[in-house]
Amino acid sequence: MGASAFIFDLDGVIVDxxxxxxxxxxxxxxxxxxxxxxxxxxxxxxxxxxxxxxxLLDIGGITATQEQFDRWMVEKNEDYLEYIEKMDASxxxxxxxxxxxxxxDRNIPIALGSASKNARPILxxxxxxxxxxxxxxxxxxxxxxxxxxxxxxxxxxxxxxPENCVVFEDAVAGIQAANNADMISIGIGDAQILSEADxxxxxxxxMSLAFLESLTSVQA
Length: 220
Ligand code: G6P
Ligand code: MG
Prior knowledge:
By secondary structure, this protein is α/β, with parallel strands linked by helices. Helices cover 43% and strands 11% of the residues. The chain has 9 helices and 6 strands, in the order E-H-H-H-H-H-E-H-E-H-E-H-E-E-H. The chain has helices at residues 18-31, 38-41, 49-60, 66-84, 96-105, 119-125, 149-158, 172-180, 209-217; strands at 5-8, 110-113, 134-136, 165-169, 184-188, 199-201. It has a 6-stranded parallel beta sheet. 6-O-phosphono-alpha-D-glucopyranose binds at residues 11-12, 21, 44-49, 52, 77, 114-118, 138.
């Protein structure tokens, strides 16, 4: 039996929210008196908000009290929510609708598997919430990627065995989480960075429907 369910990461796979996360983290870093570069922002992909703040404070050489830490978490998220407020369907990444449409036409279930606690409002803004048969996000997990928890919960919600699930991911930790879940991992982005993935594509424009068809009909 081939792949019978597909799980999508959100940030960097369905929408490019990394730029908004970057702006919000950069604003906080600047307020705290240091710079935060786009290159450093790469380290934040797929990483929980709490862990991102820990890394940011490390970069700035700042030791925070618990109270400051909690306040900065809230502040960053409030700024991020302002940046994403006006997001709409025009921000869906190229050919994502092509892939979702292909799967929906074949009644293949799809789930979201994201570390973000803002996943639902973002899917609502870009009008993709109704397309998903299951949503697993940062509010549902206790262990962050590369732990497979987020994807295993998604597979369970779809009632599909992990080895029959395909995961689309743009983060190294996400590819590792998919591999740890025993799922088929597909890297969306730089193949050198995502070298642990089973398959690699720069973006969905490079992914043919014939490729998707081959995944769903492969004999396991
Ligand atoms: C995704 C992004 C990360 C972000 C995390 C938490 O995994 O790639 O950069 O830190 O979600 O997002 P949140 O919206 O909960 O702050
Ligand atoms: Mg991502």
